[in-house]
From TrEMBL:
It comes from Thermopolyspora flexuosa. This is Large ribosomal subunit protein uL29. GO terms for cellular component: cytosolic large ribosomal subunit. Transmembrane segments: none annotated. Keywords: Ribonucleoprotein, Ribosomal protein.
Length: 77
């Protein structure tokens, strides 16, 4: 996850894939915060990128829950 994911990249993913990406991003955020606390973090901007990535994932999941955005596979059927 060198570069942040956009909402357009996240929307076509399955729910399980979103959950997996969310788990990975939260784990990365934990590690970055740990590095920051110990003074080992070199790229402090990455904290902000990962937080925003987590927010994007939650947003896409909520859009689906509310029916705002339908999963593309459902539309094609």
């Amino acid at each position: 996850m060198a570069k942040g994911l956009t909402a357009e990249e996240l929307r076509p993913l399955e729910h399980d894939e979103l959950v997996q990406k969310l788990k990975e991003a939260k784990e990365e955020l934990f590690n970055l915060r740990f590095q920051s606390a110990t003074g080992q973090l070199e790229n402090t901007a990455r904290l902000r990128q990962v937080r925003r990535e987590i927010a994007r994932i939650y947003t896409v999941m909520r859009e689906r829950e509310l029916g705002i955005i339908k999963i593309e596979k459902e539309e094609s059927e």
